[in-house]
## 1
Amino acid sequence: MQERALREAGKAVGRQLVETLEKEAGLSAWNPRGFVRHYLEGAIARMGLLAVVADMGEDFVQYRFLSCPFLELAMSYPEMICDHLDAGFHEGVAARMKSDVIHERLACMGQGDAFCEQRLKWARTGKEKE
């Protein structure tokens, strides 16, 4: 029950952040370049977090967080903080950007990795697949 509450709280904050960015920038659609500009270089940087792009293409962006505001807690309680709260946050970000965006966590400092790594993938339309 506690895990579900943490995940839902994370989702709500992620959705709200993206909604705020959409209003600030007048965005109606997201793509990898817009995500890097408005989310990573904008909102995340303003929060004082260090994030870098590891890889990017027309339909995906892979990025690393080199800092974590919850690192001390995450090291002690990785399941609660990383697997529920943080995972929910990133799910909320992806969901707000529309249903065709899929989030995947690739690495996690709370689980012993040197950084947290995330990947967002946009579904391709029929035209783009050809």
## 2
Amino acid sequence: MAGHDHPLFTRIYSLVAKLEDRGSVGEARTRAAADLHGRVLIVGLGPGQDLHHLPGEVNEVVAIEPSKPMRRAAQPALRMAAEQGLNVEVLDAIAEELPLPDESVDGVLFAFVLCTIEGNRRALAEARRVLRPNGKLAILEHVRGEQGSLSYWSQRVVSPVWPRLGGGCRCDRDTRELLEQEGFDTSGLTDEVLVNLPPVAPAIVGTARLRPDRD
């Protein structure tokens, strides 16, 4: 899907992801994925940074990644996963149209992805569709800063240009509210500050679950 191919951003993000993995962001990836088990869908594989943070209870992964440069960048991480006995299937697909049957995965992981998906409401509806009953949604996402905070104002200032610099990232989305509107219980998510760069400092980390009252 050529529209998702950004070779320069891929190179930059792959480097940044490796550097961040040594600190609070890497630790947050581990915590976000901690409750996953069985067959897991990773939405937006990127350079594969999430793979080595998955707990041992995960025995199969299907990952979607519409960017060809990102799929190439993920090859070392995929080889490492294979060496450790983790089967990972990578699909050229988008979050809004998942090529998976209903109720076919035990968990779905979104890590710094919902901020980039244009149709993020549709993406969450698709995640809800493929999750099995009692399935878990693992979340690590940039979110809108608290109103009046430095992050909030910095997001307002950079919002016209940030998506072009950050591979489509819209860091000022109220993702917790969106999750709740789409039928997820967000009480398992915590609000945190993971980096010292104000526009992307606020984040939510943890596990969301399907509300039993959702139609």
## 3
Amino acid sequence: MHAFLFENRDPEDAVTLAAESAIREIVGKSNMDQVLYEQRDAIATDLVKSIQQQLDRVNAGIIISNVNVQNVQAPEQVQAAFDDAFKAGADRERLKNEGQAYANDVIPKAQGTAARLRQEAEAYKARVIAQAEGDAQRFNKVLDEYRKAPGVTRDRMYIDTMQQVYSNVTKVMVDSRNNSNLLYLPLDKLIQQAGAPLTVVPQPAAEPPNSPPTTVDVRSRENQRGRDREGR
């Protein structure tokens, strides 16, 4: 109390001068981001120490307990440029975060797709190899049978091939005797309508030339031709 009352003419003014000096010293050693955002609490602590040291040197009789740093702004001459730089930094952080989020979304999907494609490729490889091995074994068995009975094996292969071919095509029965093109039976249509296998009855052999002529009902023949036209 004695020092505050008698050692200095204006102790309060000494506090102001000491604070201004400490601020210039500490702010001058720091960059703008530290002063405005990053280290404001640390700067306040350093200001308390610096101001107290200056007041102790002049025996001001004052103890500084706390310094509250408020309303920190850049100089007016560079405020616009500083705002632009701050916005650019914020945009950089935002774009970085968006890029990282996009990478976190795309990379797992790409890895999952790659793993699925690898599994499908392995499955296709195993299926093709198994099919090729089965075809080879089947061919070897056919070869053994062919060596035992070439004619029978050849006829059997021909019949199996024709059965496979004709199972996927339209089949029509025609009268091939005496160079006739008369349409008889659309087998595929009849099978689809009946829903059951169709049994074809073979026609009788042609009568010998010396046999007496057979009486033919003209009306029955015309009815047969009409049915044939509807089948076509």
